[in-house]
Fold this sequence. Notes:
- By secondary structure, this protein is of the alpha+beta class.
- The protein has 2 domains: 2-36; 42-162, no CATH class.
- The chain contains 3 helices and 8 strands, in the order H-H-H-E-E-E-E-E-E-E-E.
- The protein has an 8-stranded antiparallel β-sheet, with helices on one face.
- Strand 3 and strand 4 form a beta hairpin.
Amino acid sequence: MKGSTFAYVMVGFLIFSAWAHFSNEGSSDNEEMQAQDNGRDIKISEQASMGTYSEREVCKAAVSSMFFHSPSIMNVSKAGDEVYKVSYRRPSDNTLWENKCQLEGNRVHWGVFDGRWRTHEMDGVILFMALGNDLTIQENHNDGSTSVTRFTKQGDGSIVKIDG
């Protein structure tokens, strides 16, 4: 009796192991499909599609998107080799806000200017993609939700948010 119980347990374990292996084999496809279902169209890439946008302009749009202010109030200056300072006065109370921004591939690293970089695993991930005059900023929040903001570059070089 003990031998047959052991055999049943082993068969069950082997079946479960095979199921677990084969169900995880396509996990990257499942993750990609799940990301698309969540509206996460932009994937992290070492290559960035910049379109007609400079790094300064991508940083301006990213901060504008994250903090829900017009890019027209954002000022961008160089703060280091590849680091930009994006500052603005909040219209509601005229307080000065300063952030730092750096691009790595199509990822936007940011933080409060005198604070830490928001690169912890619990921080959101900001991605961008530009094609011609169109720029998309995608914020992947740590709760699995995604925010997408689209911008376009006007003939005069200004960046405006596209409604919708």
